[in-house]
């Protein structure tokens, strides 16, 4: 199994083989908590305009979730926040998800043979799934902050998954703890409380909380359907 680590939107565009789009803070953490909270369907789009168009098409029981510049865009139902997935009314709903990095990475991975979304919360399950599929080529894409700046949490997650694929589980607890004073420091700033609460930091860094995979399937309509695949066996 050939494993490569790439970064940003450029990395998603270049990714080949089974591709894992990694966005710890917060796209795929939010998606995992959404499935755990009972959403019926999860659809990824690239822009808020596409989100509104898709909602108008689907109509009933549809919510729009996501961020631009980290904040919930006007007209969205919920922000890109695991905390909001746990407190919002999401069960049984179709969720349209739109973020700067994660969902655009999913949609941009056009050369991939298979696409997964991952964060710390489902990293182990993601590695188990890849080992089960046993592809010849794997690309791990650390999307980074706003898909353009290096984000340590995404690189730690990529290295952790790569280690599992190579037969060793690296202890990343110290690195995760250090994020609190590094790239995760923004969750603890008082001015960010309304859209980026401290609880999101802890929910996003809860390693291997979920034993399921987020598999993305591109559709002819331009969005990606995200499927939950449980790894119980």
Short synopsis of the structure:
The chain is built from nine helices and ten strands. It is of the alpha/beta class and 233 residues long.
What is the top-level CATH class? Alpha Beta
Q: Report the end-to-end length measured between terminal Cα atoms.
A: 23 Å
Average pLDDT taken over every residue = 96
Question: What is the count of helical runs?
Answer: 9
Q: How helix-rich are the residues, as a percent range?
A: 25-40%
Tally the structural domains. 1
Q: Supply Rg.
A: 16 Å
User: CATH-wise, what's the superfamily?
Assistant: ComB-like
In N-to-C order, the SSE pattern is: EHEHEHEEHEHEHEHHHEE
Molecular shape = globular
Number of DSSP-assigned strands: 10
Low-confidence stretches: none
Largest sheet: 10 strands, mixed
What structural class results from the helix and strand content? Answer: alpha/beta
CATH architecture term: Alpha-Beta Complex
Would you give an account of this structure?
The chain has 233 residues and is α/β, with parallel strands linked by helices. It has a single domain, classed as putative 2-phosphosulfolactate phosphatase (Alpha-Beta Complex), CATH 3.90.1560.10. The chain has helices at 8-14, 27-36, 48-58, 82-87, 102-108, 123-133, 152-165, 173-178, 198-204; strands spanning 2-7, 17-22, 41-45, 62-66, 78-79, 94-98, 112-118, 137-142, 212-218, 224-230. Strands 1-8-2-7-9-10-3-6-4-5 form a ten-stranded mixed β-sheet, sandwiched between helices. α6 crosses α7 (152-165). The longest helix is centred in the C-terminal third of the chain and has 14 residues, at 152-165. The protein is globular, with a radius of gyration of 16 Å. The two termini are 23 Å apart.
């Amino acid at each position: 199994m050939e494993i490569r680590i790439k970064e940003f939107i450029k990395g998603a565009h270049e990714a080949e083989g089974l591709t894992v789009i990694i966005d710890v803070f917060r796209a795929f953490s939010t998606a995992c908590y959404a499935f755990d909270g009972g959403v019926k369907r999860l659809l990824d789009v690239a822009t808020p305009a596409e989100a509104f168009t898709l909602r108008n098409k689907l109509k009933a029981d549809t919510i729009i979730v996501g961020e631009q510049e980290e904040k919930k865009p006007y007209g969205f139902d919920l922000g890109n926040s695991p905390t909001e997935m746990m407190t919002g009314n999401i069960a049984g709903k179709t969720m349209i998800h739109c973020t700067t990095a994660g969902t655009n990475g999913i949609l941009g991975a056009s050369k991939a043979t298979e696409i997964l979304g991952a964060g710390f919360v489902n990293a182990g399950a993601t590695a188990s799934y890849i080992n089960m599929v046993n592809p010849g080529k794997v690309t791990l894409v650390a999307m980074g902050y706003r898909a353009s700046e290096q984000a340590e949490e995404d690189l730690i997650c990529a290295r952790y998954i790569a280690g599992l694929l190579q037969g060793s589980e690296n202890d990343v607890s110290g690195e995760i703890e250090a994020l609190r004073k590094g790239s995760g420091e923004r969750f603890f700033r008082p001015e960010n409380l309304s859209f980026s609460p401290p609880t999101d930091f802890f929910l996003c860094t809860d390693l291997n909380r979920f034993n399921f995979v987020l598999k993305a399937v591109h559709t002819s309509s331009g969005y990606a359907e995200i499927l939950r695949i449980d790894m119980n066996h």
